[in-house]
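Fold it.
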Amino acid sequence: MDIRNIIKKPIVTEKASLLKENSNKYTFAVDGDANKFQIKQAIESLFNVTVESVHTANYKGKLKKVGAHTGYRSDWKKAIVQLQKGQEIRMVEEA
């Protein structure tokens, strides 16, 4: 699996912002087939930081109705990555 395909996008929510400020943890949407070791390697090589730990969670897609049509959102996986003290990842909205 290519490193650039493992990390899909950063998750920017109020909870993710509090995690970043209080405990140096960053939240990303990742590929559903990626394991913790692959996620750690991808973050370290893309952002040039040292990762202490990776926590993952799988989410099932929710049922959505639009008029007479029904369907499901996609299943997705979230990774919460903790960096070593003193290191940070600069996001686009911060720059």
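The longest strand covers residues 51-59.
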